[in-house]
Amino acid sequence: MPLPLPSSSNPLRCAVLDDDPLSCDLVAGYVGRVPALALVGSFTEPVAAFEYLSRAPIDLLVTDIELPGLSGLELVRGLRQPPLVVFLTSHPEYALPTYELDAVDFLMKPLAFPRFLRAVDKAQRLHAGPAAGSPPPADDTFFIRTEQQFLRLRCAEVAYAEAMRDFVKVYLTSGAVHITLVNLKHFEEQVPTGCFLRTHRSFLVNKAHITAVAADEVRLGPALTVPLGQSFREEVLAQVVQQRLISRHPAGSK
Length: 254
Prior knowledge:
The protein contains seven helices and 15 strands. By secondary structure, the protein is an alpha/beta fold.
């Protein structure tokens, strides 16, 4: 089935910046494939891009981070009225600085078109302003099978789940621990959608209980931490931090 392309009667004016001409052309081509975007410029020189952006208002900038002479982070910091920004990089350690700049998204190279579409969708929603909140699910409970019983749990009761070979240890906020004879992949696929997030190949965490995200760990409450794998960091920041980050440029502001 073909991917649904974001569309709009008023496409976002978009510029692309990457000092690698092949990467720049690739992203510009992605922009051209999306009806919701209108490409107004593509740049391989950061200074030229900065001069253009300082005098020509746009809605969305897709920029590499590591650039000669002026990094993507420095460029955005230098703009008096920065647009919405999607950062590109090959280095996951740049994730936290980009969210400090209110980035729409943080994309890893090589960039796949489906991942780019997800970033465009976020940019559209931010540009349009906050939408009405969706109602909570009617039933966020599920059953696990333990040695003695079938146990019904609410999402809010579960702090996290840990893979232990072919079974899963389910840790509750009450301090209780239950073991169920399924692997973590099957557990993740069958719990209510939207409640949990993988932070590590062996850990599935309740998003509602995350209180802090550090470089290599996620904190749940005042004392409990679970590991954060590098390959999962981008998605954790996008789902947990970005949509709730108090920013200098609130959604819908110009």
